[in-house]
Specification:
Oligomer: single chain
Strand content: 15-25%
Largest sheet: 5 strands, antiparallel
Number of strands: 11
Structural class: alpha+beta
Distance between the termini: 73 Å
Strand order of the largest sheet: 10-1-2-3-11
Radius of gyration: 30 Å
Helix content: 40-55%
């Protein structure tokens, strides 16, 4: 029971810290980026990396606003976090070498990704439409996709990316009753990120017993959001950070806008995974180094709790189920050190037994000798 209480306290502490850190980090790093310039901002060359979406997770954590507002029954607010990795592009699917791990608020993550994805998709369709007739005949590849996209509603669909910002659902003119519902992004164990219904204006409390497509009257198309969803074959979705010809040509680096903005808005865990030029090591000579180390430690702790499924699908701390990953792995050097230490301990134990045996034998000889000296004839 003491271990469960300790685990709960540790997870709550890390989630509270991460919540505040993710909320404040973008403003701080945007200021730093403005002062230092784009070339000095990124700690390593992001253009050779890709964003790999890992998972989305509900987390219930302490909220100052909830604690101060008498209208709320609890001080715990539901937060939505996205856990992703920065992997070398040529190793993105395995991502078992040098990489970084990050966590961002779901709204920040989706805002950055969808904005650029939509612009790129629209540019692609403009180029395709020049080669296709109005009916979409004789079009192949992107032309067919764009034609269907432009006729979503006629086909009974609506773009899911229209609802990445929490908003109130409009009711029909003759529907004056029923509870108010809001629509926005939510974590989904099957899809990764999905559009769902909520009971509050901040889209923090999901409604699980009502189907969102039934309420909308349309099916949701996740084409623009496909980069933040799990693929059916189990592969992870990877977004290259290399800047294209139509992407942010005014800056001097080769990093596209998605990676620039998402990286800036994220809490970072880089040092444990071999990124020698990560945020902490870049500040080693600065006066803020110890604070950066502490921040990264807390970020890593919180990210690990997401990796190890320490929270349920409803955001509660799960202290009953086994974790999915081994917390520590023994390195070769540690194995050698432990083996050597074992040999030394066994050697000392052997010496102790040997000395004890010799001293016991010597005591018996001295005893017999004394007995012979005191014997009366």
């Amino acid at each position: 029971m003491k271990m469960m209480k300790f685990l709960s306290f540790a997870l709550i502490s890390s989630s509270v810290h991460a919540n505040g850190m993710v909320r404040d980090i973008e403003a701080k790093q945007t200021q730093r980026r403005t002062e230092d310039g784009a070339n000095d901002y990124f700690e390593y060359d992001l253009s050779s990396f890709s964003i790999r979406f890992e998972k989305c997770q509900f987390v219930k954590s302490y909220d100052d606003e909830f604690a101060q507002d008498a209208d709320y029954d609890s001080v715990l607010a539901m937060k939505h976090f996205v856990f992703y990795k920065m992997c070398p592009t040529d190793e993105c699917q395995s991502c078992d070498g040098v990489h970084g791990e990050y966590v961002a608020d779901i709204n920040d993550y989706l805002e950055k990704v969808v904005e650029v994805e939509q612009a790129q998709f629209e540019n692609m369709c403009e180029n395709c439409n020049e080669k296709c007739n109005n009916d979409g005949d004789y079009c192949s590849g992107c032309g067919k996709i764009c034609y269907n996209w432009q006729n979503l509603e006629n086909n009974g669909y609506v773009d899911a990316s229209n609802y990445i910002e929490c908003q109130q659902l409009e009711k029909d003119g003759d529907d004056d009753g029923g509870e108010e519902m809001y629509i926005g992004p939510m974590c989904d164990s099957q899809k990764g990120i999905a559009i769902g219904l909520f009971s509050d204006e901040n889209c923090l409390e999901p409604i699980s017993d009502v189907d969102v497509e039934t309420v909308l009257g349309y099916k949701l198309s996740y084409h623009v959001l496909s980069s933040v969803m799990k693929e059916e074959n189990g592969d992870q979705t990877c977004l290259s950070c290399l800047e294209g010809n139509d992407n942010d040509e005014d800056d001097e680096d080769q990093v596209n806008e998605i990676c620039e903005d998402v990286y800036a808005a994220s809490a970072k865990c880089e040092s444990p995974y071999g990124l020698e030029n990560g945020l902490v090591n870049q500040n080693r000579e600065g006066g803020d180094y110890e604070n950066q180390v502490e921040n990264e430690f807390m970020s890593c702790t919180f990210i690990n709790s997401l990796k190890w499924n320490s929270y349920t699908e409803t955001g509660e701390i799960d202290i009953y189920n086994e974790q999915d990953e081994i917390i520590r792995e023994i390195s070769t050097a540690q194995i050698v050190a432990l083996s050597g230490l074992t040999i030394v301990i066994l050697g000392l134990a052997f010496c102790a037994v040997y000395l004890h045996h010799k001293l016991g034998k010597a005591s018996r000889v001295v005893g017999l000798s004394n007995l012979g000296d005191n014997q009366v004839v």
